[in-house]
Write a structure and sequence with these properties.
340 residues, alpha/beta, four-stranded parallel β-sheet, four-stranded mixed β-sheet, 10 helices
């Protein structure tokens, strides 16, 4: 397992070990995800996935690789492109080559909802459409919803399934898409098995605070810890799917234990219970007894308005159903410990 010391990777490694698997954990301990100078936890080795010589002996006798490591963050600074390409894509290429050399033919890949880009939308007149990019003048006037490219009608979000086109809109998203493409080509070349788990908004105890690794739930939590109201962009109506890290671990266990299949399978890992960003902020504020959120009306260039997942494929092909809904999970998360 790569990325075994991370927020998600650590929880997945624990779940697999609890299920009886012998987990060989590695992590390079990138400072974007870990406190500078920190050491891997017991049982986890400090190894860079890009180092083929260090990787090769660890793959001897391994049945399946669970690839969780990645450079994360919004990926909006063009200067970061080489780092994303190196840590995410080159590292994955090295890993796949070493798996082939070791005779390991099964990969579980941590992918992301970001590969979809804008999400899915319906026009009340023209049906499913690809939205026009949001115009800056509309955003400046508080008009946040997408418009139909045919008639200009306001669009409504719809569930995104795994057959949606991949249209990455950030460097991070481009690198995650490339990881999937490498894995797909590898599975064809070696007749291997790949399950790409497209995580939606993951949250839960042990989530890092104040790093690019943090999602909006942790950012809201950090504000509340400091006695400040969570700052909600746009009008707070952005729809997302928040999935608890324990459910993500369960999805990985289901993928690791899936045997007998050859080829590439992508599956959304989500709760199946859409929720708005404003609702997330409200729930955290109420559960923590902190100040009410402030809806700022501000926006960030490149932000996705809505992206909500269809959970059907993971249920049907992996037997995965999320057990922790946002009502329960976010209430508990409001007082859960975070990582520095």
């Amino acid at each position: 397992m790569t990325g075994a010391a991370g927020f998600i990777g650590g929880r997945v490694a624990d779940a697999l070990a609890a299920g009886g698997d012998d987990v060989v954990g590695i992590d390079v301990m990138l400072p974007a995800a870990h406190r500078p100078g920190s050491e891997p936890p017991p049982g986890c080795l400090r190894v860079d996935v890009r180092d083929a010589d260090a990787l090769a002996p660890l793959l001897d006798g391994v049945d399946v690789v669970c690839h969780q490591s990645a450079m994360v963050g919004a990926g909006v600074d063009a200067a970061d492109a080489p780092a994303y390409g190196s840590h995410n894509d080159y590292a994955t290429a090295v890993l796949l080559a070493q798996m082939h050399a070791a005779g390991c033919r099964r990969l579980v890949l941590a992918s992301s909802m970001v590969v979809y880009g804008q999400g899915g939308y319906d026009c009340p007149v023209h049906g499913p459409v690809d939205p026009l990019p949001r115009r800056r003048e509309d955003l400046d006037h508080g008009v946040f919803e997408h418009r139909c490219p045919v008639g200009g009608e306001e669009l409504a979000w719809r569930l995104v399934d795994e057959d949606a086109p991949l249209r990455p809109r950030s460097l991070y998203a481009a690198s995650k898409t490339a990881q999937e493409h490498y894995a797909l080509a590898w599975s064809d070349a070696v007749r291997g098995s790949v399950v790409a788990l497209r995580y939606h908004n993951v949250y839960g105890p042990g989530m890092p605070r104040d790093t690019p690794y943090s999602g909006v739930a942790a950012i809201f939590r950090s504000a509340l810890e400091n006695g400040s109201p969570p700052q909600v962009f746009e009008d707070g109506g952005q729809m997302r799917d928040f999935v608890h890290v324990d459910d993500v671990a369960a999805a990985n266990a289901a993928a690791v234990n899936r045997v007998g299949s050859v080829g590439f399978l992508a599956a959304n890992v989500c709760s199946g219970r859409p929720i708005s960003i404003r609702q997330v902020a409200d729930k955290l504020s109420q559960a923590s007894g902190g100040p009410a959120p402030q809806v700022t009306g501000q926006y960030r260039s490149g932000d996705v308005r809505h992206i909500v997942a269809d959970p059907a494929r993971a249920r049907e092909l992996l037997g995965f159903i999320a057990r922790i809904g946002p009502e329960t999970g976010l209430t508990e998360f409001a007082k859960a410990p975070l990582r520095n």
